[in-house]
Design brief:
The protein is of the alpha/beta class. The chain folds into two domains: 124 residues, Rossmann fold (3-Layer(aba) Sandwich); 151 residues, Rossmann fold (3-Layer(aba) Sandwich), CATH 3.40.50. The chain is 35% helix and 20% strand. It has a six-stranded parallel sheet, sandwiched between helices. Strands 10-9-7-11-12-14 form a six-stranded parallel sheet, with helices on both faces. The protein has a two-stranded antiparallel sheet with strand order 8-13. The longest helix has 15 residues. The protein starts with a strand and ends with a helix.
Length: 313
């Protein structure tokens, strides 16, 4: 039986979920290994590729053998450890890296990397963005589970996915007020809104949106109770997503619904490349207060990634 590990830095749930999505889609039995590095290793990985188990903090998972047939690693702090595991296996372990490992190395059997990371290597597969655990089956289940709550909302139904402040973007009260004004106009169409905030959404921003969007036509998920996130995606006629999150945008794209990007303050060249690609491919448009209907074939990133993994096994 083929064995596989997933190796990520402890606490990076979004990174771990991308690896899990790949493993499950490829039909792999997997064990998740989360690690943290001590100084000085965490300061220099992945550029200094030396690794020893002594580099791990006490709360890290053990990296003892027998080593797996396939190792799926993601996150800069995991790269030196992943290369070490491959060496310890006598190069038997196939090493798959999800997201940019920053460095290039022939020991990587496959690197699955977003186009906007500008990572080019013979062993690299470029994809649109982030791999997702959302599947057609999970969306269908969410649609049925939330039918009683969401089917009664008047159409068009608009899902609004709110992120938050990050290293590159900032969500401010000023832009939140502008967004609330635009959303109110959609409600007057009449449209209905299904709004969800993320863990990174500042509480004052949540409170402001909830206060400004009080209406029977607005569903607002604030993090309490069962999460309707996937139900919002599948019941929506259009999806708005703040520009700070590659993952949320890619999850929205998986539905094939019209996707609009909500501008925030800040930005980066990397995010600019990402959004420019989405718009050039006809996947998304900038949100200016109006919604229209259009169609596209969603990116098949996960299928491409699974095929590439099977080619190296």
């Amino acid at each position: 039986m083929t064995t596989s590990w997933i190796l990520t830095e402890k606490g990076l749930k979004g990174t771990e979920n991308q690896c899990i999505a790949l493993a499950e889609a490829a039909g792999l039995d997997y064990t998740v290994k989360n690690i943290r590095l001590k100084n000085p290793w965490k300061l220099f990985t992945p550029w200094i590729r030396h690794f020893s188990p002594n580099a791990l903090t006490p709360d890290s998972d053990a990296l003892d053998g027998p080593f797996p047939d396939i190792l799926i690693a993601s996150g800069r702090k995991s790269i030196a450890a992943a290369l070490w595991i491959k060496r310890q296996s006598g190069n038997r372990t196939k090493l798959v890296v999800v997201q940019s490992p920053v460095i290039k190395d022939d020991a990587f059997d496959l690197v699955i990397v977003p186009k906007h990371d500008n990572y080019h290597a013979p062993n690299a597969l470029q994809i649109t963005g982030a791999l997702s655990l959302i599947t057609a089956e999970s969306l269908a289940a969410a649609k049925e589970e939330w039918a009683e709550t969401l089917a009664a909302l008047p159409g068009p139904r608009v899902a609004v996915l709110i992120g938050g402040t990050s290293r590159t973007h900032k969500i401010t009260p000023q832009m939140t007020r502008l967004l609330a004004m635009q959303l109110k106009k959609l409600v007057q169409l009449p449209a209905s809104l299904m709004v969800t905030a993320s863990r990174r959404t500042p509480q004052p921003i949540r409170d402001q949106l909830r206060s400004d969007l009080q209406s029977k036509q607005v569903q607002f998920y604030d993090g309490t109770g069962p999460n309707p996130y996937q139900a919002y995606l599948v019941w929506a006629d259009a999806i708005l997503v703040t520009e700070d999150s590659v993952s949320m945008a890619c999850e929205a794209l998986s539905t094939g619904k019209p996707v609009y990007i909500i501008r925030l303050e800040g930005g980066s060249k990397r995010f600019t490349r990402f959004h420019d690609h989405l718009i050039a491919q006809g996947y998304a448009r900038w949100f200016t207060g109006q919604i229209n209907d259009w169609g596209y074939v969603p990116p098949d990133d996960l299928a491409k990634a699974v095929s590439a993994v099977k080619n190296i096994v």
